[in-house]
Design a protein that fits this description.
By secondary structure, the protein is of the alpha+beta class. Helices cover about 25% and strands about 15% of the residues.
Length: about 90
């Protein structure tokens, strides 16, 4: 996850979630950048992390090889350049 990715901070539990995970919870979150969460030593919320809320999908080794050969396009980034999320 890039430093400028938008995350939602749970200041009470000192954790953060991705916007996609936050819709499942009914908590008061504060929007921030991933870099701020790291500076505050907040941890990713376990359920969100386990659900893949912070990871970029990856291709298999053979898929990566085909991308390098130009036979497959690279997977689109999960994050836009401004830190917003591509779902």
């Amino acid at each position: 996850m890039p430093d400028n990715a938008i995350v939602l901070l749970d200041d009470q539990n000192h954790t953060y979630v991705s916007p996609g995970c936050a819709t499942k919870e009914n908590k008061d979150y504060r929007q921030a950048r991933a870099s701020e969460a790291q500076k505050l030593n907040y941890e990713p919320e376990k359920k969100c992390a386990d659900a893949g809320g912070f990871r970029q999908e990856q291709r298999s080794m053979s898929g990566n090889f085909l991308v390098r050969l130009g036979m497959l396009p690279p997977l689109p980034s999960r994050w836009n350049p401004d830190g917003t999320w591509n779902w």
